[in-house]
Structures are given as structure tokens and as C-alpha cells.
Design goal:
Length: 369
């Protein structure tokens, strides 16, 4: 333990002497956590709408007014024909076309139904799908209002659907994204810095001095890992404070449980970074290898796309990543207030990751003396 203490003193001195490293470790995650949740938003608003109103009746004007006041659409063009509206789509001045046929109001009154045609630019599939869904909802609501006016007795019959949204009642996308982004920032800081750690010793030539000392391999790896484990804890705590003060996200679950899972996760990710470092000969090589894997971890972790929606091979890759489990657990504890029984399987998996990655790093570290 005395040897390990000296190694830790050495590592902390090296970290605080490097004036360029400190901003990367502490300031960069803060700035990213302040900016990224504001940009990483899948809520689709300000959808440009081209209108073709062949009817120009009271009901068609009411429908367009309802669409415009929804807050999701901007009516950017009123055209006389479908080819003119398509030109708006082709020039990217409109995202969706809505065409109201002639005799729309007359059909509504006489037949109780009136067709409306929608066409969406599906290059951006998310925007087209959500935009069309919003329009369908507005049209269904407008249809209910018309039925209430024309057929009040029939309008009162039917199924009364009431729904409630748990854990995020206002469907605020930031509440969903901030916990996941915090996990990614901690992963990037610890993963990248740990990957560069042993390689830096190789490049400056101090690794040979360490190799001729009686320092054991596990002591060397632990000495490299513990300082950045502490830094990861500090970064995570700062992130939780920002989430609370800036975004109003207060963890519902037990913080001790959250930090317990985090402590195991950091051991796993630091072991992963140190494993890369033992295989690399230069910092540039370690940086690119770490970047390759961390990008895969981010994209396949369920941060943006649910793992359940991935193909089978994608699910396999996702489940081989420690990041996937921590993002799930982070959202479960922070937003749902999940307890130990809910996270015990992911915790066990993270422990397995930690043992394998750190054991591999210790075995692969070549000590010549």
C-alpha cells in the first residue's frame, strides 16, 4: 500500500502540473453539458407548411387558423396548385403540403366528411413523420369540433380517452437527454484521458524507470486508475449540480445507489482506457483507437435511439458496451426513482466488465523487471 500511495502522489502531481489537461477535465464537460441538451432536441417545431386551399370557405379558414396557432407549423406559402406547392418542397422552403379540395365545407355539412390531402418531404424522415403526426392530430381535433357543431347528439357518444405521462409529465426532451449526456461526458473524459496515460509515460521515457522498480503490475495500473476515478466522481457531481440548477432535474432515486453504480462504471471505463493504452505506442494512436470505440459506444448506447428499436446485431453491440447499461440505470434512478432490485442485473454486468477490462489491462502491461 505504501508503494501505491507514492504512485498516487506522482499521478496527482503530474495531473495538476499539466495546465492544458485541467480545463479538458473540468471546464470542457461543464460547457458541453450547458450547450448539448439545448441542441440535442428531437422536438420538431417550426415546420414549414405550403397550403393549397381550393375551397376558401369558413371551415377551411378555421382549419388553417387552428394549424397555424398550434405552435408547430409556419404557413410559408399559399399556392393555387399542387405543382406550385411542389416547387416549394423542391426549393426546401416547405416541409409539408396540405391541400384542401373544392366543396370542402359543403361535403362536411352534407356528408359529414371532407377529404384533406397531405404530402411530406421525407428526406428528413423524423421531421416528416412527426409533422404528419401533428397534422393528423390537429385534423382529428378539428373533426371532433365540427361534429360537435353539426351533430351534437352523436358527438357526445364514443370512447373517452384519457392519458397520463409518468416520470416526465410535460414530455420535456431535455429531462430525457441530460442524464444520458452526463454519462457520455464522464465517459469521454475518463476514457480518453486513461487511454493516453500509459502511452504518455512511454513517449517521455519514464516507463523504463518504472519498469526497473519493484512496482507490481497491478499497483501500476491501480496508480494510474484511481486519480481519474476520483476526477470522474467530481465531474459527475458537477454535472448533477448543473442538471439541478440549470435544467431543474432533481434525482428522484437514491443518490448513494447512483454513486455506487457510477463507481463500478468508472472502474470499467478506466480499465478500458488503460487497456487501449497498454496496446498503443503513441498518444496519437491511443487517441484514435479510443475515439473509434467511444463513438460506437455513444451511437449504440440508446442515448438517441432506443436499443429495442435496433436490429438484432445492433442490440448485440449495444449490450457489449458498459455505456448502454449506465445510461439505462441513470435514467431509471434519476427520473423513475428505481431501487436496487431494478438495477441489480445491470450492476452485475458492469462488475463483470470491470473485472475483465482491468484484468486484461494488468495482464497486457509488459513489465520487463
Amino acid at each position: 500500500m505504501r508503494t501505491l500511495r507514492f504512485l498516487l502522489e506522482k499521478e496527482f502531481k503530474q495531473i495538476f502540473r499539466d495546465k492544458g489537461l485541467l480545463p479538458v477535465i473540468f471546464i470542457m464537460p461543464v460547457i458541453q453539458l450547458l450547450i448539448m441538451p439545448l441542441a440535442a432536441n428531437f422536438d420538431v417545431k417550426n415546420i414549414n407548411l405550403a397550403v393549397i386551399d381550393h375551397d376558401h370557405s369558413g371551415y377551411s379558414q378555421q382549419l388553417l387558423a387552428k394549424i397555424g396557432s398550434s405552435g408547430y407549423f409556419r404557413i410559408t406559402a399559399n399556392t393555387a396548385s399542387f405543382p406550385e406547392a411542389m416547387k416549394q418542397i423542391e426549393s426546401e422552403e416547405a416541409d409539408i403540403i396540405i391541400e384542401i379540395p373544392a366543396n370542402f365545407e359543403e361535403q362536411l355539412i352534407k356528408e359529414g366528411a371532407g377529404p384533406v390531402y397531405l404530402a411530406a418531404d421525407a428526406i428528413n424522415g423524423t421531421k416528416a413523420g412527426l409533422g404528419s403526426s401533428y397534422l393528423n392530430t390537429i385534423l382529428a381535433d378539428f373533426n371532433s369540433e365540427i361534429r360537435m357543431k353539426l351533430l351534437p347528439q352523436q358527438a357526445n357518444t364514443g370512447i373517452d380517452i384519457r392519458s397520463s405521462d409518468w416520470f416526465n409529465p410535460y414530455l420535456n426532451y431535455r429531462i430525457y437527454m441530460v442524464p444520458g449526456i452526463l454519462v457520455i461526458l464522464v465517459t469521454m473524459v475518463c476514457g480518453f484521458v486513461a487511454a493516453l496515460n500509459i502511452v504518455r509515460e512511454k513517449e517521455v521515457g519514464t516507463i523504463e524507470q518504472i519498469n526497473v522498480t519493484p512496482v507490481k503490475k497491478w499497483e501500476f495500473i491501480m496508480g494510474k486508475m484511481i486519480p481519474f476515478w476520483i476526477i470522474g466522481m467530481i465531474d459527475f457531481t458537477i454535472g448533477l449540480l448543473i442538471a439541478r440548477l440549470v435544467y431543474g432535474i432533481i434525482p428522484v432515486g437514491n443518490l448513494f445507489l447512483l454513486y455506487g453504480f457510477l463507481s463500478v462504471y468508472l472502474v470499467a471505463m478506466l480499465g478500458f482506457g488503460l487497456l487501449i493504452s497498454t496496446y498503443s505506442d503513441t498518444q496519437l494512436q491511443a487517441m484514435f483507437v479510443a475515439f473509434f470505440f467511444i463513438i460506437i459506444f455513444i451511437l449504440m448506447s440508446g442515448l438517441f435511439i432506443s436499443v429495442d428499436n435496433m436490429p438484432v446485431w445492433g442490440k448485440v453491440i449495444a449490450r457489449l458496451s458498459p455505456v448502454t447499461y449506465f445510461i439505462d440505470v441513470m435514467r431509471m434512478i434519476v427520473l423513475k426513482g428505481s431501487g436496487f432490485n431494478d438495477i441489480k442485473i445491470p450492476l452485475l454486468i458492469e462488475i463483470v466488465f470491470a473485472i475483465i477490462l482491468n484484468g486484461w489491462a494488468i495482464l497486457n502491461y509488459r513489465k520487463t523487471a
